[in-house]
Design a protein that fits this description.
By secondary structure, the chain is α+β, with helices and mostly antiparallel strands. Helix content is 40%, strand content 18%. A 4-stranded mixed beta sheet has the order 1-2-6-3.
Length: 146
């Protein structure tokens, strides 16, 4: 049912890359996926999304249909303000995430929800490794400063 997301997690997010100090683009994705801590849902409504996030395991991915990138960014900003303990990350094909020539986008608009403190703690650990050294200032601002 979610083979495309599993392929993305296993083949893109979990493959060590030089640009990330020989770490995967998302060093924790494969473990969370393999331990069944990622829920993938098709977006139905914002009311349903708010009900679903009450049962957040570790990561929840909401697959959206056709939506403009700027509208999607606005949704993520709104929910990051509304739920400060959670982090809402927009994944959209028009919001290209390119790190030293490596594009990590999945291709489907998705809103990825995680516990903010857990993610920020993981980011602090990654900073010690050189993981962020090849990120552009634009990507650091867009991805890290939410």
């Amino acid at each position: 049912m979610h083979d495309d997301i599993e392929d993305w997690v296993m083949k893109v997010l979990s493959k060590p890359e030089k640009v990330f100090a020989n770490l995967p683009p998302c060093p924790f994705a494969k473990k969370a996926w393999m331990e069944n801590k990622v829920d993938v849902k098709n977006f139905v409504s914002f009311e349903q999304l708010e009900e679903d996030i009450k049962n957040l395991k570790e990561v929840m991915i909401f697959r959206f249909g056709n939506i403009a990138a700027n509208d999607f960014e606005d949704i993520a900003k709104e929910y990051n303000q509304k739920y400060p303990d959670l982090l809402f990350l927009e994944e959209h094909p028009d919001l290209v995430e390119c790190f030293g020539g490596l594009v990590t986008n999945q291709g489907t608009p998705m809103l990825i929800v995680q516990d903010r403190k857990e993610l920020e703690d993981a980011r602090k650990q990654l900073k010690k490794t050189g993981y962020y050294d090849n990120w552009s200032e634009e990507l650091k601002d867009r991805i890290l400063n939410r």
